[in-house]
Amino acid sequence: MRHKVAGRRLSRTKEHRLAMRRNLVASLIQHETISTTMEKAKEVKPFAEKLITLAKKGTLAARRRAIALLGNRDIIEYEDQESVRKGTVIGKLFSELGPRYLDRPGGYTRIIRLSLRRLGDNGQLVLLQLIGADERSKAKAKKRSRKKAKEAAEAEEIAEDQQTAETEESVEAENNAEAKDSTET
Question: Whole-prediction pTM value?
Fold first, then answer.
């Protein structure tokens, strides 16, 4: 019997479970949303929340503790078929996520069930997300749409100004042509 034994085994050895947990949380911090199975998400969620609580403290000791628990993986993005280092997972955790959740007492993640099932073993898939990631992307979209609307309005004004200038030039040309005709006759 497993009295007072916490956690799930997930059909893995202890080392494999720890590595998987670290990798999932690092991916969650990097991408702010990941797709995984329900069992893995339930196992990873408390660990991610503890790390965000450490990030809220923001002290050197908390940063060292987070590095000890998680490791300090680089964030790599590919631009024009070249890999570019964008920072580290711990850097993002302490510079972006910690300040984002300062006024929140807990509950930094959520699990959203998907209707999809994994093909190999028919496992239930879920999204594990950081709260506030989608609201931030909506705010960015609103800013972008405002920016695009402003650019479109400026382009429209420029087009109107050009049309007005062309119209004035054509009217002037007609007046000059009429004046020439009247002076010739």
Answer: 0.70
